[in-house]
């Protein structure tokens, strides 16, 4: 023990009395007298209302204090090594000050003889209020004089990645709210052996460069920040759970932000959790808005894709419920494996298609999923897409704005169940089961929001629209798929033939900008019946949407939804169709049909297009109840016709009529023949709608034999 920085030099007895015993035996005043009564002038007053403020009858700040005693002033600054030394003091009176010098708990304390039992009860780790040994604070306490922000180290945290700092961290968070502090500072690597809870109150600020590493097992949240209106966190907050694989992880979820709105967070880094890395709930009120500059989530949940680790199961005993083409349909299956933290926010993949989990019965080992499973499948294997890098939920969890959102090796990158999903300037998802889910399956859509740049690599599904209803003007400005083969998809109920009744819904109210490497299509099945190839295009979503399909044969059912609440727009769209033929064209027939009774397509019940010469753009628009579908330029279609051998007289012609669906008067035609036709001139023209006439003319003076061969016809307009 020393006063004014002078070390004790008086020899002790042979027993070497300890400093704590010395302090206790002669008291604080005695210590000041033993050093010759050295005094130091006060430097000023602490803030009103803060611990140690002038309303407590004591003035001073920094490293010195002075005590009022009538007209006399007696000042003395005594140093002590630890909080335990401080608690051993005797003979203290109002205004006496002591400087703790060692470790993170160092600081200046002032004695207040009033009843501080309530404050001491709220501060059991004595970061702010320190009673004497054997007293609960009713006889007074030392109060920390703050000349800067409080820290977890003041409550005993080491901040060096060793031990268990959870108690000190929780005490730090509690003190900010309980004692009405506006800010705190949390810097260090903290190993924690229990969940952390921060209920900070309104208008608070945290300066952070903190990494919290778990040393405990719990399926709940590692850190919960709740009821913290206008919270601003400057710096990095990192949470690291236990276990690098899904089988070895012992922490359920990472960070919960519940009721945190109109605030901002600079950076969040969350890794290695069984389920969700970050959850944002109840972010509502006062035109709510939460800004997060940068988010990184890694190994949160399970997805069995390359670069990640996942959980599979065998399933059987399929039972279907609900109605055809209705969102109430479910398939219930029995499984042999259930992840411990699987819930109804998760998905499974069966036969390459994603399905929303709608119910989990652990006692019966069953799952219910939406929509119905592929027709004809009654048993097999499935992969779980469990947990999300970030999950946002709430009827009005509005306006969450991300600068950069990076999700890697998660079950689902971003799972958005919020009415207002907010904005992501740059979104990158790698090795996730599903990159981004918009809306809750089957019937909760979102309003507004969008993604600036969406980069995808090695995900089973890049983007999934989960609701059957049209999204309210969600947009993706630009997309890049490194693998050039992943999909944007939409969930919708099936009909009794296994077809998705509303299966192509990157549709109403959802716009995509420039894309690289994408096939934007709905779910497919390797073993689907013919009826499976039915698409539904719904208009009225705003703008001039362009959709892309890659199918050899399909029935496209056109529906007008301009009267529904799906946004205002034009009743027209463009459909870009490609297939597996050598030229990239659909190898079969594309048939356009009206979805609504009383509507026609090109004057009849359907319009069919086949023999396409290459990938083709179709323009579909509505005039009253009449649909018009026409090819919008470029290669149109082609035809192949076998021709038998025939003799063509001098000056005569031989004609062959070829049926070509979609050919119209005035179309340009080109034709060729598979073998050499000496002295004969070949030509072609559309002679009637749907018919191309080939002509072989003999201009010579003698008969010429037309050899058997194959005529190739190409039509464009």
UniProtKB/TrEMBL annotation:
PROSITE patterns: TAT. Residues 50-63 have a biased composition (Gly residues). Gene3D superfamilies: Single-stranded right-handed beta-helix, Pectin lyase-like. Residues 38-70 are annotated as: Disordered. This is Pectate lyase superfamily protein domain-containing protein. It comes from Paenibacillus oceani.
């Amino acid at each position: 023990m020393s006063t004014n920085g002078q070390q004790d030099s008086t020899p002790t007895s042979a027993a070497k009395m300890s400093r704590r015993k010395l302090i206790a035996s002669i008291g604080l005043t005695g210590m000041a007298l033993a050093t010759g009564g050295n005094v130091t002038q006060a430097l000023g007053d602490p803030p009103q209302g803060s611990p140690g403020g002038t309303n407590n009858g004591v003035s001073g700040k920094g490293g010195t204090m002075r005590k009022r005693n009538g007209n006399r002033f007696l000042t003395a600054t005594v140093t002590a090594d630890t909080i335990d030394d401080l608690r051993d003091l005797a003979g203290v009176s109002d205004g006496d000050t002591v400087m703790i010098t060692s470790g993170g708990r160092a600081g200046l304390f002032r004695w207040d003889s009033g009843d501080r039992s309530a404050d001491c009860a709220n501060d059991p780790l004595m970061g702010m209020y320190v009673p004497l040994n054997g007293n609960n604070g009713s006889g007074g306490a030392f109060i920390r004089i703050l000349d800067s922000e409080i820290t977890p180290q003041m409550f005993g945290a080491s901040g060096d990645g060793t031990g268990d700092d959870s108690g000190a961290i929780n005490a730090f968070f509690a003190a900010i709210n309980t004692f009405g502090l506006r800010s705190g500072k949390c810097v260090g690597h903290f190993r924690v052996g229990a969940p952390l809870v921060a209920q900070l109150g309104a208008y608070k600020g945290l300066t952070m460069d903190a990494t919290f590493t778990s040393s405990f097992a719990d399926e709940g949240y590692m850190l919960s920040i709740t009821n913290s209106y206008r919270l601003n966190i400057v710096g990095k907050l990192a949470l690291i759970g236990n276990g690098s694989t899904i089988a070895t992880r012992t922490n359920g979820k990472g960070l919960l932000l519940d009721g945190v709105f109109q605030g901002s967070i600079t950076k969040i880094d969350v890794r290695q959790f069984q389920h969700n890395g970050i959850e944002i709930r109840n972010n509502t009120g006062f035109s709510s808005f939460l800004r997060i500059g940068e988010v990184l989530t890694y190994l949160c949940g399970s997805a069995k894709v390359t670069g990640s680790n996942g959980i599979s199961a065998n399933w059987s005993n399929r039972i279907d419920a609900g109605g055809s083409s209705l969102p109430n349909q479910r398939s219930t299956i029995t499984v042999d494996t259930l992840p411990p933290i699987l819930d109804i926010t998760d998905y499974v993949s069966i036969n390459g298609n994603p399905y929303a989990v709608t119910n989990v019965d652990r006692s019966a080992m069953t799952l219910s999923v939406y929509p119905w499973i592929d027709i004809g499948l009654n048993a097999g294997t499935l992969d779980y897409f469990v947990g999300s890098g970030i999950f946002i939920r709430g009827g009005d969890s509005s306006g969450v704005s991300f600068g950069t959102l990076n999700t890697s090796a998660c079950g689902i990158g971003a799972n958005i169940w919020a009415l207002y999903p907010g904005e992501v300037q740059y979104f990158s998802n790698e090795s996730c089961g599903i990159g981004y889910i918009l809306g809750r399956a089957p019937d909760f859509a979102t309003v507004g929001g969008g993604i600036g740049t969406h980069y995808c690599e090695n995900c089973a599904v890049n983007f999934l629209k989960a609701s059957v209803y049209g999204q309210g003007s969600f947009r993706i400005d630009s997309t890049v798929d490194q693998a050039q083969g992943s999909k944007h998809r939409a969930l919708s109920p099936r009909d009794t033939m296994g077809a998705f009744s509303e299966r192509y819904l990157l549709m109403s109210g959802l716009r995509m900008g420039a894309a690289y490497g994408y096939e934007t299509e709905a779910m497919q099945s390797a073993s689907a019946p013919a009826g499976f190839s039915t698409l539904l295009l719904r208009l009225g979503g705003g703008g001039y949407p362009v959709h892309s399909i890659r199918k050899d044969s399909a029935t496209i059912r056109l529906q007008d939804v301009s009267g529904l609440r799906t946004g205002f727009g034009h009743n027209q769209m463009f459909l870009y169709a490609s297939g597996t033929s050598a030229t990239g064209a659909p190898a079969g027939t594309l048939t356009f049909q009206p979805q609504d009774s009383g509507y026609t397509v090109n004057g009849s019940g359907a319009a069919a297009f086949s023999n396409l010469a290459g990938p083709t753009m179709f323009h579909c628009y509505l005039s009253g109840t009449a649909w018009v579908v026409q090819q919008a330029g470029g290669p149109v279609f082609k035809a192949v016709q076998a021709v038998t051998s025939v003799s063509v007289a001098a000056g005569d012609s031989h004609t062959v009529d070829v049926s070509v669906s979609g050919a119209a008067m005035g179309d340009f035609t080109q034709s060729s023949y598979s073998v050499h036709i000496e002295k004969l001139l070949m030509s072609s023209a559309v002679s009637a709608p749907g018919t191309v006439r080939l002509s072989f003319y003999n201009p010579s003076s003698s008969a010429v034999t037309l050899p058997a061969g194959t005529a190739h016809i190409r039509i464009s307009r």
